[in-house]
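In this supplementary section we document a worked example of the pipeline. Step one takes a protein sequence of length 259 as its only input; no multiple sequence alignment statistics are reported here. Step two produces a three-dimensional model, which step three serialises into structure tokens for compact storage. The input and output of this example are shown verbatim.
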Amino acid sequence: MKHITTETKNRTGIITLSNPKKRNALSNEMNTEIADALAGFKTQKLLTVVIRAEKNARVWSAGHDIAELPCNGKDPLAYNTPMEQMLRAIEAYPGVVLAMIQGSVWGGACDMAMTCDIIIADENSSFAITPIKIGLPYNPSGIIHFRNRVGLGFAKDMFFTARPVLAERAYKAGIINHFVPAHEIEEYTFRLTDEINGYSPLAIGIIKEQMRILFRATPVSPDAFEQIDQLRHTVYCSEDYQEGLKAFAEKRKAVFKGK
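The serialised model returned by step three reads:
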């Protein structure tokens, strides 16, 4: 694999994001590699998986590779995109997926971390969800990931300000489950996976699937789904979205006009 490495340690699968030149941006290829790695660990019946960056990384992941977002009126976060397939692979994995966070987490990578079952992070971590910076209409499943972890009020603050949430505040808000000093985080994380590995795989898998079903059980009418789809279509076909992508590529601040 080009953009990640995988290994097994004491019955725990480890996925390491390993593309520092692009700050571990979640390219389509990397997303596919992560999903494939999870499928391999599932075949091995590993109860725990850790997703991490390389040791002492300043950026855990810069989020979705902006250069790969479509600009031709296609939904950038459609159901069948590699990013969404990777997130569903985390949700559907029949064991516990842990994100070990060192460094900053941006955009779609923040969504990936939120989708993991448990987040362990150190004092250097931070989390920012940044679609408004490029005029990107986020999808319903991604919004639900945030609402389920931090509640609606905090999710609104993250989406509407795009400001990084620093480690201590992230812990108080419930983003981080275990707040651990940087020099202890590896030992702590694998001590936790060893503990989980001693429990019933069947019980954990069933409980996780129940949680997935129950926390996704938000009643929405067909009319509401169609309305959401139209709202998002209005944004990703807009001049603002084109300006956001262009400004990012040109490394300047976008000038949005609400069109």
